[in-house]
Amino acid sequence: MAASPAEYVTHHLKHLSSGHDDAFITMSNWHIDTLIVSTLLGLAFLTLFRIVAVRATQGVPGKLQNFVEILVEFVDNSVKDSFHGNRSFIAPLALTIFCWVFLWNCMDLIPVDLFPLLWAQVYGAMGHDPAHAYIRVVPSADMSATFALSISVFILIFVYSFKGKGVKGFTLEFLTHPFGAKLLPANVILNTVEYLAKPMSLALRLFGNLYAGELIFILIALLPWWAQVIPGLGWAIFHILVVTLQAFIFMTLTIVYLSMAYESH
User: Fold this and answer.
1) Rounded Cα distance, 112 and 121, in Å
2) Cα distance between residue 35 and residue 214, in whole Å
3) Of 12, 135, 177, 210, which has the maximum CB count within 10 A?
4) Which phi and psi (to 5°) does residue 17 adopt?
5) What pLDDT does residue 156 have?
6) pLDDT, tens digit, for every residue of 63-81?
7) How far apart are CA 78 and CA 103, in angstroms?
8) How far is CA 262 from the centre of its chain?
9) Where are the alpha helices (DSSP H) in the chain?
10) What domain range includes position 83?
11) How many Å apart are CA 142 and CA 164, to the nearest integer?
12) Tally of structural domains, the chain
């Protein structure tokens, strides 16, 4: 493992990736750890909800069924308050985003050395140098994951714009709103910035909060073990609020953006 504090932090912030391209934007280097962890967490979410759906009873529900029903009702009410069209797709989408992002964020509460140490043992057993066994398990602290999710929402914004307003209505609104047809260039510039800001704000807000949280846990882990308890416990308790709040914000903004896209101004 890393010998100095700087090397320790750097080691914990490197991904298990398909290549060695460290460019800020690249299509040749895939973060394998993010892909695997995101997929496993998504499968865990789907499996849990599938089990609850299959075992659901009309009698007295169990604790798990009761929890899932409360969560589904909460998300459905959130969608109902903001989106006034057909909710048959939006409500499941919002539920999926909230649960998936929440699980992503919860990985930040796992001790920072646990997975790196386990992966170093496996990596060494495969004949590689354990010092180069890199892995990160918080998908929401990876900008590629948060942007992938926000770009998916960005695409849906256009889908629901065309669905709610039609191609003609969308084009007319894009060219004439908010200043009228006489200021068409200003309208185009303003609306372009507004559309681009939506996926940027979704991705960067989630990434920034969870990356900072992960970094603080790493810095706390640099302290002697007896000095980690109070700051580590305090930050973990506070971070539980951040984990939940960021998942809720991402879900809520997704609903609001799709509602704005669907409705005419």
Assistant:
1) 16
2) 18
3) 210
4) -125, 170
5) 96
6) 888 999 999 999 999 999 9
7) 20
8) 23
9) 5-12, 32-55, 63-82, 90-106, 114-125, 143-176, 184-221, 225-262
10) 5-262
11) 33
12) 1
Residues assigned a catalytic role: 201, 205, 209
| Contact present, 153 and 160 (Cβ < 8 Å) | no
How far is it, in rounded angstroms, from Cα 32 to Cα 135? 9
How far apart are the C-alpha atoms of 6 and 9, rounded to whole Å?
Answer: 5
Residue 57 pairs in a beta bridge with: none
Determine the 3-state secondary structure of 54 from DSSP. Answer: helix
Q: How far is it, in rounded angstroms, from Cα 139 to Cα 203? A: 12
C-alpha triplet 72, 49, 246: angle, nearest 5°:
55
For 188, the 3-state DSSP assignment is: helix
Rounded CA separation 78/217 (Å): 32
Q: Which residue has the tokens 């007896």?
A: 226
Radius of gyration in angstroms for the set of CA atoms belonging to the chain, rounded to a whole number: 22
The 3-state DSSP class for residue 23 equals coil
> Do 47 and 110 contact (CB within 8 A), yes or no?
no
pTM of the model: 0.93
